[in-house]
Q: What sequence folds into this?
């Protein structure tokens, strides 16, 4: 009887911990912004408010040793001012690992799928940031943008692939040129190819 009681107790404790974790951590592992240290959050937002260069990792970690966690929470909370979210995403480039890559790709995908004009337009910033931080990995999603029916999306992809300037990026532009029908897009593709080859 005691053994059954102990086992049951352990299961209940385990279940409680699991529920608590699910309530306090987002599905992607980020903490809800209201659970962050208020003073550290405020100081981080102040750093991100500047319109000059993105804060360095040293500057951010001087505010909090949990700087990355704070940035991830800011970047993924839609209740936060869009400027701060974009700047937080940019500041995460200080870490530039697989998790950051996944966040950038997710940001680009969600922006392109959004029905909200301002969110949709943020795909331009997302594409540039992805290319600057992960140029090799950016080529594939940018190639998919070249097939988008929205001309501005295609023009963004053309511009960013030109910034990357790698052989893979240029090959993508060359292939896309075959099917492109818009005069402006064709001219920009040709200009990039002529300049970089």
A:
């Amino acid at each position: 009887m005691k053994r059954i009681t102990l086992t049951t107790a352990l299961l209940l404790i385990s279940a409680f911990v699991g529920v608590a974790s699910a309530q306090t951590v987002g599905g992607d592992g980020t903490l809800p912004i209201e659970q962050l240290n208020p003073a550290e959050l405020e100081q981080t937002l102040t750093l991100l408010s500047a319109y000059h260069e993105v804060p360095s990792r040293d500057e951010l970690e001087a505010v909090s040793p949990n700087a990355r966690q704070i940035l991830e929470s800011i970047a993924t909370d839609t209740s936060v001012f869009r400027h701060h979210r974009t700047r937080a995403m940019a500041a995460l480039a200080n870490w530039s690992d697989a998790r950051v890559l996944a966040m950038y790709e997710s940001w680009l995908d969600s922006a392109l799928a959004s029905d909200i004009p301002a969110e949709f337009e943020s795909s331009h910033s997302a594409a540039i940031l992805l290319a600057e931080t992960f140029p090799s990995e950016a080529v594939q999603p940018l190639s998919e943008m070249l097939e988008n029916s929205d001309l501005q999306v295609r023009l963004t992809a053309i511009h960013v692939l030109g910034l990357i300037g790698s052989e893979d990026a240029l090959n993508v532009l060359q292939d896309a040129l075959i099917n492109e029908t818009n005069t402006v897009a064709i001219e920009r593709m040709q200009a990039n190819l002529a300049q970089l080859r």
